[in-house]
Amino acid sequence: MNKPLLAILLLISLTLTAPAAARMQLMAPTVERNALAHQALYNRVVHDHPLAKPIPNSRVGVRIMTDRILRSCCMPPMLVIAGKVVNLTKRPINYVRVRVAFENPSGHALHAETVYNSKAVSMDDTPEIERMLHEKPHFTPLAPGASDTFVFSVPLMVLPKFAKVRVYANGVGQ
């Protein structure tokens, strides 16, 4: 093939593809923006729920680290609320019993669950579990200023329609 013909073909191909590339560049942000807006709407509709509010007291601070609905093909959707408790006193705390309360708009509790902080989770063992593990409930005390974690995992099917979620220390062992 001769050089002038090759140059003409190259020029024609560049002329034909340049407007298409320019159009693609102009359309891409719009398409991307629409996709992001659609994803945000989907997240709000499918995953939205009232977020948990921590209620601290003079002895224990409560901080929420995770508050989300986990979905799986193999089990029902679970609301997972995880956080930290902090010993605000000047003495060690043996355990913290943390409570999550799901409330209606007027503040009436519709459903509530209780867990112990992670270092005292065996406090919640039943006699059958004690027998299987061959141990009694125990805990590792929290020093002044120390923190520990807690986790709630609640199946959405057991929860009624709720407007508020509060997480607080329901009991402190010293």
Q: Return the domain count.
A: 2
Which CATH architecture of the largest domain would you pick? Sandwich
* Structural class based on helices, strands and sheet pairing: alpha+beta
Which series of helices and strands comes N to C? HEEEEEHEE
Mean pLDDT: 78
**What is the third-level CATH name, the topology of the largest domain?**
Immunoglobulin-like
Major sheet: size, sense and barrel closure? 4 strands, mixed
Low-pLDDT regions: none
N→C terminal distance? 92 Å
Strand order, main sheet: write it out.
1-7-4-5
What is the helix tally?
2
How much of the polypeptide forms β-strand, as a percent range? 35-45%
Radius of gyration: 28 Å
CATH class label of the largest domain: Mainly Beta
Oligomeric state of the chains in view: single chain
Described by the principal axes of the CA atoms, the overall outline is elongated
Helix content: 25-40%
Total count of strands: 7
Secondary structure layout:
Layout: H1 3-47, E1 52-55, E2 60-70, E3 78-87, E4 95-103, E5 109-116, H2 127-133, E6 147-155, E7 164-173
Parallel strand pairs: 1-7
Antiparallel strand pairs: 2-3, 3-6, 4-5, 4-7
